[in-house]
Amino acid sequence: MHGADPRLVLGLHRSRHHRDILTAALELGVSSLDTAAAYLGFRSHAVLAETAADLLPKFALSTKVGFFPGAGGAEHSLDPSRLRPAIEKAAQELGREPDTVLLHNPERSLASLSPADGHALLGSACTALVDAAREGLCGTWGVSSWDTRPLGMVGVDGLPSPDVLMVRAGFLVGIDLLDTTAVLCSVWQAGETWGMSPFGGRNGKVWEDFDPRPFLRPPHDGLSRVQAAFRTAFHLPSVTAVAVGTDNRGHLAELVQAVGADVDTTAVSQYLRALHGHRQS
Fold first, then answer.
1. Is this structure's pTM higher than 0.90?
2. Dihedrals φ, ψ of 251, to 5°?
3. Distance CA 52, CA 169 (A)
4. What are the CA-CA distances from residue 280 to residues 176, 179, 182, 266, 273 (Å)?
5. How do strand 67-70 and strand 73-76 relate by DSSP bridges?
6. Domains of the chain with CATH codes
7. What sign results for the dihedral spanned by CA atoms 186, 152, 270, 253?
8. Helix/strand/coil (H, E, C) string of the chain?
9. What are phi and psi of 83, to 5 degrees?
10. pLDDT in tens, 38-89
11. pLDDT tens sequence across 9-49
């Protein structure tokens, strides 16, 4: 996987932002934290600073910009004149510059545009983040996309290559999206690719019908189906880190344990071929 060890990132989507899960993460060796300006009703940054200001310097911290409070709820924008102040506000609220700032779900503003207009808008948004990183408002920049297909439609040729590309990962990602993401990664040449939402927001019941443990190399005695699903997500698609949200220390400890397991990449390749074959039949 790009020569890097797999890394677990504690994601704060749907998290209650309690200090105890951050403390638990550090005790378990999890030192990467991912949030977004829009999380916790646009209060994530401020709450983190209020409850865990002393812990934040111990994390490699990534956040996202692109959603803004609106009259009818959250609204999305790739307007550089809005992105730049949002990055500045993130640093102010957190009390430190984020290590990485990601463009949050740019497809939300691209889906309704022509390829030419979408390409131009995405380019201007990426340039705004490039400038922010160059000026020290963040360490690196990137793009976080829940659905990479609109990015593929507008094209990323000629646009700045992100330091980080965050995409959906795991068994619950469809083959069409996996294929689009693979092409996007090949064209854009991001410095790192991260995965997110390895369980697709589903509870553990989905794994009662599907056992992912055959995708791990022996010995994997004692690992649960959920642990196997998480570990295999690093190969669906190939990523160096996976962000997963939990407020449960025990669940986090299980995922940390799973990172040490070895994945049978031959089995993963056979699985992908089967998905392609099923689609074509």
1. yes
2. -65, -40
3. 29
4. 12, 14, 18, 21, 11
5. antiparallel
6. 7-280 (3.20.20.100)
7. positive
8. CCCCCCEEEEECCCCCCCHHHHHHHHHCCCCEEECCCCHHHHCHHHHHHHHHCCCHHHCEEEEEECEEEECCEEEECCCHHHHHHHHHHHHHHHCCCCCEEEEECCHHHHCCCCHHHHHHHHHHHHHHHHHHHHCCCCCEEEEEECCCHHHHHHCCCCCCCCCEEEEECCCCCCHHHHHHHHHHHHHHCCCEEEEECCCCCCCCCHHHHCCCHHHECCCCCCCCHHHHHHHHCCECCECCEEEEECCCHHHHHHHHHHHCCCECHHHHHHHHHHHHHHHHC
9. -70, -45
10. 999 999 999 999 999 999 999 999 999 999 999 888 999 999 999 999 999 9
11. 999 998 999 999 999 999 999 999 999 999 999 999 999 99
